[in-house]
Amino acid sequence: MTKKLWRIKSLDNEGLVDELQGVLNDLPKPLARALILRGIDSFEAARVFFRSGTDQLHDPYMMADMEPAVDRIVRAIKDGERILVYGDYDVDGTTSTALLTHYLEGQGANVCFFVPNRFKHGYGLSREGLAVAKTEGATVVVALDCGVTAIDESKYAGSLGIDLVICDHHRPQKSLPDVVAVLDSKRSDCCYPFKELCGCGVTMKLAQAIHQRLGHDPEELYEYLDLVAIATASDMVSLTGENRILLRAGLQLLRENPRIGLKMLAEQAGVRMSECSPRSISFALGPRINAAGRLGDAGRAVTLMLANDELEAVARARQLERLNDERRALDRATQEEAFLMADRLLSGPQRHTVVLYHPTWHLGVIGIVASRLVERHFRPAIMLTKSGDVVKGSARSINGINIYQALESCADLLIEFGGHNFAAGLSLRPEDVEAFSIKFDEAVAASVTPDILEPVVEVDAEMNLEDLDKRFWAVLKQFEPFGVDNEAPIFMSTNLEVIGPVTTVGKDRNHLKFAVRSVSGSHPVRNVIGFGMGKHLEIVADSQETGTPLDLLYSIEENTWNGRTSLQLQAKDVRSSIMTSG
Question: What is the mean pLDDT of the chain?
Answer without folding.
Answer: 92
